[in-house]
Amino acid sequence: MRKKRPEEFWNNTVPEGNCLVWNGSRNASGYGTLTRDNKTWVASRYAWFITHGPIPDGMLVCHKCDNPPCVKVEHLFLGDHDANMRDKKLKGRCFRLTRATHHATKLSEA
């Protein structure tokens, strides 16, 4: 089997607004996925890897644009879980489920 080159990865992307979106398969959360050398990758992690090299253990590849299929390296940054959660909260994407907001709630706090 022929080894795939990194440029073949970029050929499977399309511009979408300011993002560069993975045009291949996606997982249930909308993140692009691909297989290289018998390893399944999240597309944004693979984009980081082929551009910057190995991703340190425990680090996530996070999105500045909050667009899961985006693989534009300028939109990606490394962070641990805590940094990713802080970023989520700062951008107002953090939703805390309470009894009052749970879909099955029948009574209000009042």
Give an overview in words.
This protein has 3 helices and 6 strands, in the order αββββαββα. The mean pLDDT is 86. It is an alpha+beta fold and 110 residues long. It has a two-stranded antiparallel sheet. Strands 3-4 form a two-stranded antiparallel sheet. The longest helix is centred in the middle third of the chain and has 10 residues.
Summarize the structure.
The chain is α+β, with helices and mostly antiparallel strands and 110 residues long. The protein has helices at 6-10, 43-52, 81-90, and strands at 13-16, 19-22, 33-36, 39-42, 60-63, 76-79.
List the helices and strands and how they pair.
Layout: H1 6-10, E1 13-16, E2 19-22, E3 33-36, E4 39-42, H2 43-52, E5 60-63, E6 76-79, H3 81-90
Antiparallel strand pairs: 1-2, 3-4, 5-6
Q: Calculate the mean pLDDT score and round it.
A: 86
In total, how many beta strands?
A: 6
Weakly predicted, low-confidence segments? none
**What is the CA-based Rg, rounded?**
18 Å
N→C terminal distance: 66 Å
From the helix content, strand content and strand pairing, which structural class follows? alpha+beta
**Helix content, binned percent:** 10-25%
Q: Count the DSSP helices.
A: 3
Quaternary structure? single chain
List the secondary-structure elements in sequence, H or E.
HEEEEHEEH
Percent strand: 15-25%
Strand order of the largest sheet: 1-2
Largest sheet: 2 strands, antiparallel
Coarse shape: elongated
